[in-house]
């Protein structure tokens, strides 16, 4: 199995271009099932999760043409199969929006229990609530380990109050509502940049969605959607990961064109990096991070230990919590980092501790980071996408050589990360 061999303390200097947003590309690809006309998607990240989803829709009849590595033409007019293979649908959680898309197209779908990162329990209940509100009935077949969904009379618009602001459940609600009969209101909707992107894509091909960027979406069902072209937004989680890279390694890094985004994510993720003492500035449309910073954690009022916590947008993203923990190990002072959403995401910190990080795991959701810590090379295993990239950052900032195994997890979310970082001075070898 492939692994990374990393030589730490390499001098990093150069420019990085963020890839397309994986978390936007997946629901947009699912939503192409809502039209029989051609859709051309640009800036699609060439990563494993996207490939799996394309394999899924290809297996049920979609025609997929790679115009180039990051531009794809999709036509789903030939989709007739509603029974998703366990070997494909069960690989990634990002396949979930296919449920509403296939119900809208075929009125039924048999769907395996999805996979994805092992970061704790990830509820399906909110999805089931959404689908029930849209007029869907379902059963669970223990023999095939599949949920069987039926909408014999088509999807019907309704008022939907989500019991949690789940991103993928919001995506299922949006995708199900755009062709449903009548009007749908979705309250307590997630409003992350990739949700906004999904809505903008759907509106560009004829949907009628209002309230984009808020937690209350109003959708008027239409009879059909057309074809079109859409560019996936840059991945703000990757931007945050590269900010963490600069924090851990002391590299001089420029992130290209990040201020061109129509969504102001820099102020949200940048605020927390400033709290651990990372300085950066805007240069035109680029974000520039100076080298060799003496970072120091900014205390709260009256010198209290500060806390960084995640939450639904526009709070700090859960997907950057692991990166923030590693980044804080290189900053002088103490900070509490509180992950509220997944009970197992923090467990990777034992691997950081083995590398020399002064981190205390208080409980499944909180750590105290005391820095700065001198990190040392070690052999570690990547448990999920974000922990994997965090361990890679730690290895790059550590003394000596590190081995990172199970890098399939990193490849699921970061396109050719070793080649891209090696271009700015990293010493990462892919082996196995």
From TrEMBL:
It is found in: Cytoplasm. Phosphoenolpyruvate binds at residues 22-23. CDD domains: UdpNAET (cd01555). UDP-N-acetyl-alpha-D-glucosamine binds at residues 93, 319, 341. It catalyses: phosphoenolpyruvate + UDP-N-acetyl-alpha-D-glucosamine = UDP-N-acetyl-3-O-(1-carboxyvinyl)-alpha-D-glucosamine + phosphate. Pathway: Cell wall biogenesis; peptidoglycan biosynthesis. Keywords: Cell cycle, Cell division, Cell shape, Cell wall biogenesis/degradation, Cytoplasm, Peptidoglycan synthesis, Transferase. Its EC number is 2.5.1.7. The active site is at residue 117. Pfam families: EPSP_synthase. GO terms for biological process: cell division; cell wall organization; peptidoglycan biosynthetic process; regulation of cell shape; UDP-N-acetylgalactosamine biosynthetic process. GO terms for molecular function: UDP-N-acetylglucosamine 1-carboxyvinyltransferase activity. Residues 7-420 form the Enolpyruvate transferase domain. Its main location: cytoplasm. InterPro entries: Enolpyruvate_Tfrase_dom, Enolpyruvate_Tfrase_sf, MurA_subfamily, RNA3'P_cycl/enolpyr_Trfase_a/b, UDP_GlcNAc_COvinyl_MurA. One of its GO terms (cellular component) is cytoplasm. Gene3D superfamilies: Enolpyruvate transferase domain. Cell wall formation. Adds enolpyruvyl to UDP-N-acetylglucosamine. PANTHER family: UDP-N-ACETYLGLUCOSAMINE 1-CARBOXYVINYLTRANSFERASE. Belongs to the EPSP synthase family. MurA subfamily. NCBIfam families: murA, PRK09369.1. This is UDP-N-acetylglucosamine 1-carboxyvinyltransferase. It comes from Candidatus Mcinerneyibacterium aminivorans. The gene is murA.
